[in-house]
Amino acid sequence: MRAACTAVAAIALLAGCGRSPELVRRPAKVPPAVLITDAGILDVESGTISPHRDILMTGDRITAILAPGQVRPPAGTQVISASGATVMPGLIDMHGHIGNGSAPPWKDSLPDPDRNLRAYLYCGVTTVFDPADFAPQAFERRSQVTKGDLLGPRIFATGPMITATGGHPVAVLDNLAPWWIRWYLIPRVTRQVDSPDAARAAVREIAGYGADAIKLSVDRIPEQAPRIRREVLAAAVDEGKAQGVRAVAHIGTLEDAIDAADAGIAAWMHGVYKERIPDDQIGRLAAYHIPMVPTIVVFESYAMVGEGPRVPTALEQQTVEPDVLTSFYPVPADSKAVAFFGPYLANLRAQRQSWRDNVRRLRAAGVTILAGSDTQAGVFAGAGLHRELHLLTEAGLTPADAIRAATIDAARFLANGKEPEFGRIAEGQRADVLLVDGDPTADLDALDRILVVIKDGVQLERKPINAG
Question: pTM (2 decimals)?
């Protein structure tokens, strides 16, 4: 279904989007510094909170963390009282799709990348890894955000997905995208390769755009779709290393995970979601020392298709139009997408406990879990990551573990061996900061009660969609 949403994204690029809610904005006047007083500061590595601290942000950096009354702020500093609240780093979505829409395929709705960027920020997501998007649009958007010409989270992007000829997502687009957009869409969101030489050429092209990573499709959707061959997969990963760019792999089965790992990929995008991993294979996967981004929320969302009305979260109500929230049920009887995905959806429903159990056992064996949402139909920009964090706790992570998966561990992966300058609260770090109501390590719901979002040292003005 993601490909069906991507098809609409292409239409949006051609036709333009209508007016969308602003959600966040930068203030008209930016103060020289921001001081948060009497806050509890969450150490995301240890999962502990240091109470009654003042934190000063000057420019785009955290410049001081001291006991109350010891910070000497410059004149004109904005002061935020935080008694009883927690300061923590901005969240990182390790599988966001800025160009995707989140309405169901049967609703007449166009994606709006700029709106998605604002929705991420509204929900406290200050960094997004976007694995698969148009080129060069994804990289132009990344540059605009970096320069401050576009308001949004920090972006890491892969550009088009490399897949087998007719592989995922091409097979889906061939069946669901209208003929009049298919010709435009497929060559822009994918690179179809059937030989090691073709794979190397595709990697060189994408690396030439300045990609932060290469995305490889190893999963079969639908099951009869072609799958990239091992030697082609290995050639793509090898060429990426030659170009100084890591590869990540979209997987679905244990075989996919092993083949991708043997090829040398840097991260599994999605978990093994189509089957339960045998107990004697858990150690084998852990021995690769490869992090996994399970994206439980997207499979949970699809497993729920047609199962009844969806209950929106508070953040979804604040960032998504009511007519979109209510459009998922009932499912139209003539939905081509649901008919096409029928066997896929049935398997997801059967495996709901398996993917939770897989995450639990893999993490217990030492696999690093990173948090990502996979923004698409039913998974909303920003709010989707909050759902994922709750689902990770259902898979055995503590609230502190889940927060770590969306902060420092994700930041370390993105920093690629360097010490990250975001993802934790410390002097010298980027001032991407959240202030939440309560202690999210004791009550993860506190993470949804966002009081303040600060990006690059500037408090953003937040306006929920239901504010009028």
Answer: 0.95
